[in-house]
Structure formats: structure tokens, C-alpha cells
Amino acid sequence: MDVILREVCKSFGARRVLDRLSWSFPGGQISCVQGPSGCGKTTLLRLIAGLEKPDSGEIRGAQGKKISAVFQENRLLENLTAEKNILLTARPGFTRTDAHALLDDLGLSGAEQRRTCELSGGMQRRVAVARALAADYELLLLDEPLTGLDGELRLRVLRRIQADLNGRTAIWITHDGDTAALLNAPVLRLDLLKN
Length: 195
Description:
- It is built from 7 helices and 8 strands.
- It is an alpha/beta fold and 195 residues long.
- The strands form 2 sheets. A 5-stranded parallel β-sheet has the order 5-6-7-3-8, with helices on both faces.
């Protein structure tokens, strides 16, 4: 099912972040939201996730859906291992073996039993991605999931996310035009909507 925004407005104090935004994110595929910092990308994702309410307008197609997310902050339990962070919110039937295979796919072989507070920022980011992919979801929300990654590793993580979707819907936030191009996905350019 498509995620549809109709005339969505959101302000914080006197600052209008989103102004009568209408858009449709097609179901069953990845869509991108692109723009520079501060243009409302994260706010839009939080609205779709139901973590914020629009001041006016409506969002359809996300309510009642099983949502998994990678937020700007990794939101890991730092004293738990990478494996335990994943298994804590994993879908039913997702095993330790599955968690290890997923971490290996993301270039984290050997990090399974390390506490996340001992991992580098880029490694923590990949654990956050792994946790999101292991969840039981219908809609995947990704807020700059490649932060802290470069080169071949960025491409590896991007391809693993694409492979996991398997016909499910994803909305990918990025400031980077190269990432949007690699995804070959419809792009909502928030910065172009600003007056």
C-alpha cells in the first residue's frame, strides 16, 4: 500500500518545517527523500512513523503497519552485545545464526559478542541497520543509514538493505544525491519545495 501525504503542515514554534506537503510513496519499493540538513527530512520520517503529529493535513498508509526504523541516532543498548541488540527486537524465528549471518553480510564478522559501546561509530551504525532489518516489518524507515560509512562499505550496506526488502516498502532519507542515484528510486526533493 502507498504511503500518501496530503497537505501536511508541521511547525516548531514560529518555524514552518513542512508546508502543505502532498506526495505519494509507492508501496513495495524504495523511495528517497533528499535535501540538505534542516529542510524537514527527519521531521517527515517522524510524522510517517507516528512519533509526531502533523499540525494539519493527513498521512495515510502507515497507520497499523509494522514499522522498523534506522534513526539518525543509533539508539543501541550500549552494554549489550551486537548480537543481543539485534535479537532483542528481531522477528519471531530469527535465530542467533541469522543474526551472525546478517552481521557478516554487513562486514561485522567477529563483532557479534562485542558490546556496542566498544564498537566504532561506523560499526555501531551497521548494528543499527542489522537490528532494523531483523525486525518484523512492512514499512522500513531509514534516516541516513549510511552515516559514518565510506567507499565499498557504503555500497555493501546499501545492497544488503535492498536485498532484504523483498517487495516491502522503504523510505530512505539522504542528503546525498549519489545515494539516491544508486538506489534508482523515486526522489522527493524537499529543498526544491521551499520558497
